[in-house]
Structure formats: structure tokens, C-alpha cells
Structures
1.
Amino acid sequence: MSAAQGDILLDIDDLSLEFRTFRGPVKALNGISLNVRAGEIVGVVGESGCGKSVTMMAATRLLPKGGAHITGGAVRLFGSDPMKLSERELQHVRGRQVSTIFQEPMNALNPTRRIGEQVIEVIRRHQRLSSAAARQKAIGLLRDMLISEPERIMQAYPFELSGGMRQRVLIAMAFSCEPKLIIADEPTTALDVTVQALILSLIRQKAVSTGTAVVFISHDMAVVSQLCDRLYVLYAGRVAESGATAAVLAAPAHPYTRALIRCLPGLAAPKRPLEQIPGTLPDMLNPPAGCLFRARCREADERCIEVPPLSPIDPARRAACWRRIEEAEAA
Amino acid sequence: MSLLSTILRRLVLLVFVVAGVAIVTFTISHLIPGDPAQMIAGDKASAETLAHVRQELGLDKPVTQQFVIYVKQLLSGDLGNSLRTRRPVATDIALFLPATLELGITALLMAILIGVPLGALSAIYKDGPVDQAARVVSVAGISMPVFWFGLALIIVFYVKIPILPGSARLDLGITAPPRMTGFFLIDSLVAGDLAAFRSTLYHLVLPAFVLAFANLGIITRQIRASMLDVLQEDYVRTARANGLSRSTIILRHALPNALIPSVTLLGLAFGDLLYGAVLTETIFAWPGMGSYVVSSIQTLDFPAIMGFTVVASLGYVLINLAVDLTYMVLDPQIRELG
């Protein structure tokens, strides 16, 4: 945990959130606690629908208006509560202090405007630069993303670029105003496997060289394990386990984390059939009482009817599982 | 595909379209019952007089030969002579068309200037008071017939509260500006005649608004729908995530892209406005193409009807070309990929 000594940039405390639908409230987040310090790379993992993106979009208030309602908990983003900021104040936080790279690069750039205009627009929104200086800066950022002819790409329209190329442009844009925190929401999921590794290393290198903290959202345990200092494993809108990446991978505590790791090829013994986790996420319209993983858990017993709190089980780790809590107390 | 090659290609196609229209109008005019010679010579004309008139009009020749003559005339820009006004049809059209275009263009500008902001605001403040009001305006515009709405406006703003004129292009006592374009607004400005300009403007308000109102509703709804689509695009989210201001997002990202699918509609709307002008011109005694065509139809003035049809179809094709060129300007994907 070398990089985890800095100030806390983002502190999410016991956050609960629901989407009001015609069928009733869908309880997407059920008391998530998570923090990110300056300069560290934090992974947030879990299967689709477990609340990874919603948590981060709630923190930056990028969720569409109307649907989502925060029902409990608090968020501190750079020391202030984003829920209390005005639209104008939020605009100054976004891009300048925290920016987001999304999953789908194909439509994330305006199709009718040139790449250069779009990058320069973001730069000049937050920095007092002449258009010539902003242009030079944009070219430099694209070059950092290993784009070989940045001047030509600046003149191109998004439809003339591949998905990987667009994502590099979006990463350049996200880093353009030297934010302290970048949220990378599954940035490689929509890309060809051959460019995934490149994109990931570009984000990591740029973050390390600029001291930017990154929250890496992914459903891919393998990706997260290579990149991140610390991990949060989310299940059904709760943190199942958190801790230093090495510790979590070496001895996963929560049964859900164990199951996720068993699903990976290669990390465990080779040449075995890949496992899958039986069952699906619980119905979040009517979540069952107790531990939400209970129905899919190999180790569940009668104690799991009550919700296990996220508790420290060793110096590097916290887990929300009665068995681990008991074992830790016994030790 | 460059702009120029598109224009050239479309102009070649234009020849075929006009040829098709010429064949169809010629055929129809010779198939429908009614004898133009009889119309001109009158009911009591002798057989000799009738034969003489027929010969004069070329109606005694075989149909195929008549068609060849007709096409030759068309190619030299001669649309024939009107049976009713006795003037060349081309001269008549040049006389009446500008009045209709002035009305139609003013109406289109009104519909765009009101419809686009109204549609955009309805989408941005979806289900808010502006959206609800715009919805009422749209439904009213689409469902109220032009003849009823026109008369209603005349009763209110001309009869009851006389603040606007209800007929013609100019006040009595004001002479038309020297003719250059036939657009009174332009001609009066060129002549420096502000009284005529003011009078023209006043006279345009009611008929142009009536004409604009129906299309206003359609434009508003279309802009609202495409704006709602665009506002939930990923690139709008990117812009928000990068802290761009609301006005930048709306004016530089969302609205320009929302306008693209509406361009076709605007082209259609313009054609619609010219056609709607027939009724509006009748109600407001507007001396334009609409009134001219109605009189021509009533007197079986075939050369005038055929001439108008050819010019109108030419206009339609040119509007479509303008629509496609606008697409190329607005959408780089169409411009670069063709």
C-alpha cells in the first residue's frame, strides 16, 4: 500500500441509493463505503448490476436526473458534498478535479465535430490558454497516448477512427486538465482484446507519471489484479470485501471473491474446466433479508440471515462475511 | 464525394425528372374532357371560328407532333401562351411567383425561428410548463385547417381589433416599389422606400403566420424528439463528465446534431407551404401563384396549368437538392463518405 498515504479525495460512507421505477424502488446501493486517496489506483470489481458504475456516477452526480434517489449515507468529493453543489460548481469539479472515461468509446465523441475541436474545447474550458497553446497541449496529450500522427488525428472525425483510437482520445481528454482523480468505467470492455492491454497500460503509465488517482471499474478480476493497489469487491450494492490487491488475491476472504477468482482461467491450476457461480444476483426490487450472497454461497448457514457488517479480518483487509469475522475473532 | 460532383450529378438527374413531368402533364391535359378552343371561342362560335382557333393553338395537329412542339418550346424556356391572360405563361409566372415565394419564405422563417427554440426548450425542460404549452400549440397547428384559422385571425386582428391588414400585399395609396426581384421587401429596400417596406411587412404578418402555424407544430415536435434522442447520447455524457457548461453542451453539441434529421422535414415543409399558399392566398387576396393557378384551373387554361406544374416540380427537385447539400454541410459522415 505504498501510494495510499495521500489525502482522501473521495470518501463514500454507507451510501444507499434506489431507482424509482413503476414496479417500485430498485435498491441499487445498500450501504457502500469506499475511499480513494491521492495517487493510488483502486479497483472496483463485481459482476454486472452490482452497483459499480452507479456508485461512481452518483459520486460525480452524472446519473440521469429523476430516476435515482439517495436514501442514506454521505459522499465527500474533494472535501465537499457533491449533492449540495450547484450545477455550475459541479462543472468546475468535473474535468478539472475528477474526470470519467466510459465503457463505450464508439459514441462517446460528438460525431459531427473534429477530434481536435473536442479536445481543445475541454482544455480551454478549464485552463486559461490561447487556442494555439491549447492546440499544442492537445497534440502533446495525444502523443502521450502513443498516437503516431496527432496532427492528422486532430483533423479527423470520430467515425474515421477505430474504437481503440477513440478511447485513447477520450483518455487524453480525461487527463487534459490534470485532474486529481480519474474514474475509468470499464474502459476496455468494448474493445478488441489486442488493444485492451495497451489501453490499460496507457492509463496506468499516465496516472503514475502525473500522480493521478484512478478508480478502475471492471468485472474482470484479471485486469484489476494487474493494475490496482487496492480492491473493492462489490456484490448487490454492498462491499463484500476490500483490501490490498495482493492480499485479496492470495487469500480471498469473502466466498464471493473466492468464487470470482475460481472463475478465472490460469490464475488457479491450469487445464481444468472453468467454474461459474451458480444462480444470479438477487431481485433488487425485493431483496431478501440477510447476506445478499447467501443463496449462491457454499458456506452459508443460519447466521447469514442477518446482514454481516464489513469488518476488519486482518490488517490489510475487510470482509462482510460471518465466517471470516468469527475466524478473525478466534485468531 | 465532393459537393460539386453531387450538384452536377443531381442536375443531370433533374433533366430526367422534368422530362417525366412534361410527359405526364402533357398526357393528362390531353386526356381530360373539355375543349380549350371552345372555351376561348365561346359557346356560340361557328364551326369555322372553332377550326380557326384550333389551328391557331396547334390543336389540329396529331398529338405526337403537338408533343414534339411542346418539348421544343419547353427546352427554349417557352411555356406557351396563357389562354386566359393571353400573355406568355413564363411572364405570368415571373409576375406572380415572387409574391408566393415571399409569403412562403417568410412563413418558413417564422416556423423555424419559433419552432426550433420551442422544440429544443420542450426537450430540455421535458414535461415542464414550456413543454406542455408547446404540445398544445403543436396539436392546434396540426389540426386547425388553414381556411378556418385564417378567417379567425382576420376576424380578430383586422375586424375586431384592427391592428393588422387582412388582405393584399400593400396598403391602398402605397405604390409597389420598382420591380427588380418581385419580392416587395427587397425591392422597397433597394428603392429606399421605407413606407412600402413597412406596409409589406404588416401585410405579411397574418398570412405568413397562418401558413407557418401548421408547419410550426410539426417542426416543434420533430426538434423535440431528435433533441431528446441526442441529449441521452454518450457524447453528451462525455461533455458533462468533462465539465463543459450547459450552454456549450446544448448549443454546440446537442442542438446542431438534433437539427440534422429535421432538415428533410424543413424541405418538405417548404413544399407544403407553397401548396398551402393556394388556400391562404385566396383568403388573404394575396396576388400570388395560388390565386393564378385556381383561376387557370377554372378556365381550363392548359398552358398555364402545365407551365405551373413544370415549374413547381422543378422547384421541388431543387429543394430536395438543397436538403441533400445541407446534409453534407451539417454531417461530416455524409460529406466524407458520400
2.
Amino acid sequence: MSSETTSSGPGMAVLNFCRPALQPIVAVLIATIVGGLLVLALGENPIEVYWLLISGSVIGVPNLLVTLQMMTPLIFTGLAVAISFRAGLWNIGAEGQMLVGALFAGVVGYAFPMPWFLHLPLAILAGFVGGGLWSAIPALLRVYLGVNELVVCLMLNPIALLLTGFFATHVFKAPGPTNKLPDIAPSAALHTFSVYSQVNAGIFIALACCIIFAIINVRTVRGFEWKIMGLSPRFAYYGGINVPRRAIWVMILSGGVAGLAGAEQVLGQYGAFYDNFSPGYGFDGIAVAMLANFNPIGVIVAAFLFGALNGGSGVLQMMTGLSKYLVQVLQFITVLVLAAQFSWDWLILRLFPEPPPKSPTPDAVEPVNATPTEA
Amino acid sequence: MDLEILNSAVRISTPLVFAAMGGLLTYQAGMLNIALDGFMIVAAFTAVATAYFTGSLELALLAAILASMLLAALMAMFNIKFRAHIFIAGTAVTFLAYGLTALLLKGVLGQDGVFTSDRIPTFPVIHLPGIENIPVIGEIFSGHTILVYVAYIFVPIVAWTLYQTKWGLQLRVVGEAPEAAAAAGINVDWVKFQAMLLSGLFCGFAGAYLSLAYVSLFANKMTNERGLIALAAIFFARGNPYLTALVAILFGTATALSVRLPQVTGLAPQLLQLIPYVVTVLALVLVGWRTTRARSRHSAWRFDIG
């Protein structure tokens, strides 16, 4: 949070304006430098490699479309993680919630044929419900039994993978050698725009979700209550917010959005539920949310960045002796740097020398003014 | 047939026991280390790469342990010095390790996905002189590599260290009441750092065992969530070393069965692989239910959950 109340001057105002972007940019820069050294050690030219990554992802319409395809699930999972992290709940189970959502959407997509204007919304809703139900487990355990939601989420990820795998191989298995559900009916398919990539109407749902949550966060009482919970659940509780109840719903919403990622993958990208289809979008969502600093609009930017890296990594793998996993390395170095509670104020002061602000803890002070009237 | 399953259960459980001992020390020090998989995969890769280039098992084991401890030091630095949330740091380190090993696999060894070679030496099998000839026990416990025995010997050593030494006491105090520990003059951060380093040490053994003794290859993500199962065992046993090892062995046996049993019964292998995770969640639910009932009804929301 900014310390705008403690210092004045035009320079500081500019700084406070840039502040939300500074932290992610520095983190990405550090990751780029470390990754570049790594590339150098492996005997490739880092500048060439980064140029390949950029040109392979955003230059040219086909490449850009692949990037958009790659970023769609990341928007959903990134938003899901951002919603819960912002409210102080550590939902790292987005991967499992996405898988369950995908299974639900896949089953509704093939098993209940009906007109498209009913079928498609129902299949998408099924994805949301699937993800929401899966995240309700850690939420309810957290609130009613005081079980650490992190550990439960952690365990529920492999459980979801194995269970959906079980359904895909033993219960609803489509005939044939592949472990998948039968193809979804055309009436449930999300429209695909281009032959170059699998980017589909799901991306608009993703963007809409981000905008909706941006509005909720900034304009509604709920959004404000979530923020206070994230800053200090104890304070929120004594401020009259029904923290347990809010916590359950935040988790369910977060899981539901993660489930939408699964629905998009099944209804748009693959056209059926495949066993083990995810390369870890749920975990990439943590990276996206961290880079976005839990801001829904920031999620779009962060998802674009990581989607572009993923899109460019295919080109990288073809053109050089490097593996596409370079992108994963860059991504999680960024997360690690962002997770560190570096003294960002110190960094700012080093970059732009100013008289040091003399507020010890701006974080704790800020929300006090606003609470009683709204709750 | 049955004995063969038990014999393979001992082998399958070995990396779980190593990793569980590593995770146990951090658990007792009040840190929930979810990067066990990351430590192991780095160790597994380093072991294979070193063994391939030098042909020496000792060097490979040493390098694996060093690499794993290096990653542990990185994790400790970010968690303890820079105050990164341990779960975020752990997740980042794990996926960083997955990515890095895959990148180096392609960059150093020139392979995508899997690497194996005739030049990689493997740990020789040891036949225990006296025990080998005892009918049942011999078949289960003899004929393993040295690392298997090392793993099981580590269990009492860890237990003894935790409960009989001054350092173990300090570690447990740091885990249970960091403020009290600091007040008593213990360097809390330093003890935590040591615990994390030792966690890396044990995971180094686990990784080297996986890639040089259990099989003789490296594959991307070859730890296959073993760190998570080890963590599940720790949670289930609530940090007791012997119990943790026992639960790890039971989970390992379930895994061994999930390989063999489907051929016999036609049961889906996924359902057996589920056991460790489901059992752990159920155990957490049970513990939570007990403590909630014991607690006052009015405290509707606990703010600080370890």
C-alpha cells in the first residue's frame, strides 16, 4: 500500500502513481537477467533467445493468436488466485478446481444434448459449479474446523487429477485408445475464430470476468470487505464483517473462476475432456496473480506476458538448442522475487533520492478511516 | 508374489522416508516446506549428470546433496531473510526446479524429457550376510542398495537428535514458540536455516536414490509428487519421526499395490494412488473436528493457523 499521506511533493506523487507497476517490472527485469545468464551458460546468445521469444509470440497474426490462446486459461486461473489471495485466503488449489470444472463441463457438454443457447451456458455454468464445489471443501474445512486451507488445497490437487483421471478412463470413457470423455456436442462448443490457433470465445468470458471483479473490488462493499480481510482478518472481524461467511464465498468464487478455465479448455480448445490435459495452468495462475499484485486488470496484463512467453517458447524450442522450460524458469524466478518482502521503499529511494518518509507502518494505518460507515 | 510386493514396498518407500525426514525437521521448526519435490528433482538431475560425466557414484551422491542443499539455502534465504510467504516461496522453488532441470536436461545432456545411458553407474545391491537366509525377513529386507538401509537408519537418528540433543530441543522450541525461543537466547533464524539445509540434505539423498538406485535415468518431473506424499505422512503423524516413517512406508506400500493390484483385481490404479492424499485430508478433518469441539463455541474464527 502506498504511503502517500506521509510525504508530499510532485516527485513523490509521480512515484506513487508508478508504484504498483514498479514492483512487477523490477521482478521481471531480475528474472530476465538471471535467465539471460543461464542462457549464456548454456552457450546461446541471450539477446537472440529473447528476441525469438518476443518475435515468436507477438509479431505476426498467427503468433499473436497463439499467444491469445495461451493467455486465456491463465487469465482465469490468475484471476481465481488473485481473488482469494487479495482476501487473505491462500487458494493454491486452482489446478484441482480447474480439472473438476473441466470434467463437469465435459460431462454436460456431451451427455445432455439441447439447443445451443441453453447448452453452452449450462456447460459453462457446470464448469463454474464444479470448480466452486471443489474449492468449497477447503473453505468449509477452514471455517468450521480450522483446518489450514493451504494443506487441504495442496492435497486436493492430486486428488482432483486422479479422480478426473478415473472418470476419464473408467466411467465416461470414450471408445478408443485415448483416455478422454466423448467429444462435446457442437451445441456446447465455444466458437473458434481462426485456423491458426485454438483461441475461442472463452477469452471474452475471461476478460469480462476480470472487468466484473475489478468493478466488484473497487465499487462494492463486498470488494472492500475482501480487501480488509486480506489486510487483517482480525480487524475485519471486529469491524463487523462476517469473516467466516465471506471467506467461504470468496473461496467458492475463486474456485468457480478456476473451474471456468477448465470449461474454456474443454469447450473451446480441446472439444472433450482429456485425462491430464493441464500443463499446470493452476500453478501458473499463482505466478500471474503475484505479478498482477492481485489486481484483476493487472491479471490481464500478466496473463498476456506469460501467455506470450508460453507462445514464444514453442518457437524457441524449434529454433535453438534450448528447452521451452526456460519460460517456466523465468516465470517462477519472477514469483520468487515478488514473494520476497524486499524493502521496496528503499529501492525507490535509491532510484529517486528524496527525503525519507518517516512513517513506520503505513499498511496498518490506511484502512482505519473508511470502515465503520461501510460495514 | 506377496513377499515380492513387500520387497518392492521397501524400495518404493525409501525416497518417501528420506523426504519425510527432511520435511519433518522443517515441520518441527515451524516451517511447512512444500518444496521437497523441487529439492528432490534437482538432486536427481545432478546425480544423473554427475554420474554420467564422472562415472563415480560417490561424487554423484555428493553433488546431488550439494545441489539440493543449495536450493534449500535459496529457499531459506527467501523465506527467512526476505520474509517471503513459505508456501509461495515453496511453490516457486518447486516449479523453478522442475523448469530448471528440464532446461538443463536439454541444454547439458541434449535430451528432451528422458535421459538414460549405459555410462551411468548404479548402486550395487547388498546382500545382508546373516539376514539373507532367514526365510521371510530375508526376502523382504535383503538385496537392497546401500541407500535403502541409510534411509531407515536415518529415522532413529532423526528421532534421537530431535528429542535427546540440545539442538533438537532448540529446534522444537523454535517451531512451537519462536518468541520464547528468541527470549531464551536462541538464534531463531539460524536454527530455521539449519533445519532447511538439513531438509535439503535428506532430499538430496532421496533424489540421488530415485535416479541412480530406484531407476537409472532422469525424467522430467520424475519425483511424481513424492514430496507431497511425504508431506502427507508428516501431517498424518503430526511430526513424530517413527510414526512418520511408518506412515510413509504404508503410503509407499499403497503405491506398490497400485502398480500390482490392478492386474489382479481389475481395480482402477487411480483409486489406490488416491489413498495417501485422501487419508491425510481425513486426518486433518479429524484433528480439526476434535480441536473445534474442545474449543469455545464463540470463537467463530481462528485467525492464526499454523
